[in-house]
Amino acid sequence: MKLRTSVVFLLLVTVVAPIVLYTDRLGSFTTPSSSNDFIEDVSTFTLGGDVRPLNLLPREPSTTLKEPLGVVYLENSSISLSDSDASTRENSRKIRQLTQDSMENQTTLPSTRGDTGEHPHEEESTIRQVTERGLDINQGDITLEKPGVTSLNESREPQNDGNRREEIKNENQSAKTSIKAGTGEPVNKRNEKQNVRTVIADARVRHLKDQLIQGRVYLSLTATRNNPHFIRELRLRMKEVQRALGDATKDSDLPKNSYDKLKAMELTLAKGKQIQDDCAAVVKKLRAIIHSTEEQLRAHKKQTLFLTHLTAKTLPKGLHCLPLRLTTEYFSLNSSEREFPNQEKLEDSRLFHYALFTDNILAAAVVVNSTVSQVKDPSAHVFHLVTDRINYAAMRMWFLSNPPGNATIQVQNIEEFTWLNSSYSPVLKQLSSPAMIDYYFKTRRAESDSNMKYRNPKYLSVMNHLRFYMPEIFPKLNKVLFLDDDIVVQKDLTGLWSIDLKGNVIGVVETCGESFHRFDRYLNFSNPLISKAFDPHACGWAFGMNIFDLEEWKRQNITEVYHSWQNLNHDRQLWKLGTLPPGLITFWNSTYSLDRSWHVLGLGYDPNVSQKDIERGAVIHYNGNLKPWLEIAIPKYRGHWAKFIDYDHLYLRECNINP
Known about the structure:
Blueprint: H1 2-26, E1 44-47, E2 50-53, E3 72-73, H2 85-105, H3 120-133, E4 150-151, H4 161-177, H5 187-195, H6 203-220, H7 222-225, H8 228-245, H9 258-275, H10 279-313, H11 317-330, E5 352-357, H12 361-372, E6 381-387, H13 392-401, E7 408-413, H14 426-431, H15 434-441, H16 443-448, H17 470-473, E8 479-483, E9 487-489, E10 506-508, H18 528-533, E11 545-549, H19 550-556, H20 558-568, H21 580-586, E12 591-593, H22 611-616, E13 619-621, H23 635-642, H24 650-654
Helix pairs in contact: 2-4, 6-8, 6-9, 8-9, 11-13, 20-21
């Protein structure tokens, strides 16, 4: 019985007691806060607050392994390089920071492990980290192409430890070498800058033209001329190139076979180079070609100038038809129908008076219509038109059938100015002299005269000189605004009457922005009469839109000044004929400078007049030979003039006058 008791006691001590003691230690396990939480590493347990490894598995590092860092982008996202240097430097800074963080957190896997052992949750954690911290690299649309760039839709495959270390190494090296040290500039972008080559516009057209020049040289050299087979081949190739080139001015105009023609010509020219390798002879021939080309260019320029002046002198067929048609209609009217209304306003100095001297009906219509379209009260504006005897009836008929609103119109015949004769006006005496007519109409003289601008027969017209007789034409007016017939009014001009000319006779817009618009451009300063009286660098100005103070004119006796200088210039030694040179002399020290926006010039010869200046201009002036009613007018300026003409008018359609 004692033996049995001893066995039971020993059994309790050796078997039951350890079980009870071990069960008590299990009660001290620290359990997860949630049954759904995932234990990331089963090799570690928290027992009683102490970390104690289980001996069932080999011990592994407690630090969670992180995969190599890669830039993650959404599939189909736009990937491009930003041109902004600031954005590039910011992006490169972020990349270096991410790379540094990655290297600090990387750990090497034991060689005994056969796979990554990563769970999907770890992969999502890494992706989330890169997305939150690194995906802002794509701000500015920049993503570097390098190993480690991973698409969210791509599946990952297990890698061994050696591959993982190689990937980490490649990624770090790529991140370092993808950024230019100190500047943050991508290497690829730098290489692109270095490899950019300037592309010559229309290079193939230029090449074909150069080949033709080389061909001309070989055709004229002695060594190549002695080779008939080469000469035949060269002429054939030159014809092919000329056909391919045609009238093309850019590569897109060339035919598809132009490249083949270019290559064939290259081969032929190479043969010529083998035949004639004397560079001195080629250079000599090229010099001769250049000299000949320059001579031809000078001849063509001279011919172009002559033809331009000739075109400017001619009257288009439609403008010749129009006065004939209007004259016929005018003489079919009764005498009472030939009179203009409001004739009592013609001498009212309280109104706004305009002077226009022209024989061009259509041009006069544009001046009047454009002026009236800008004023608030057309009834306060009076237009005084003076024309020649041939166009007098037609001019009256046009404005009788097309009255400019409530504005007043007066049309006068220059033949009615009986006081204007050769005994009173020196210029009339000069213009009617045989020597003057010979100067204008002898074409043999035109070929040798470099200053053809002043050879236009319009200067033989007395109307061109009426501007120097304003007080005689308008004896009862105080102020008159003179307008040329080649202008267009774009703004209200009534403000000119309120300008104080400060004792001067004429208000002008100066044109001395460049040297050729100064006095020495118009006057002969080699003559002592000119050199003693005037400054060669004085600023020139322009007729076309000028306000005249007729009271001051009379006080300073300007007409007599004009006559005295015209008498001194009877042999044209002081200035060539025209109205501007005597105008500069006559109104010397009597001009008041107006703001440039009142009068914008150059639309009759300069294709580069600023559009801003045109829009600002109160008056735009087509001074020069390229008048808006001629076919040679500058196309982009013609619309400003044409919009004041009704091309559907019966008379214009009958005379085939089109925009």
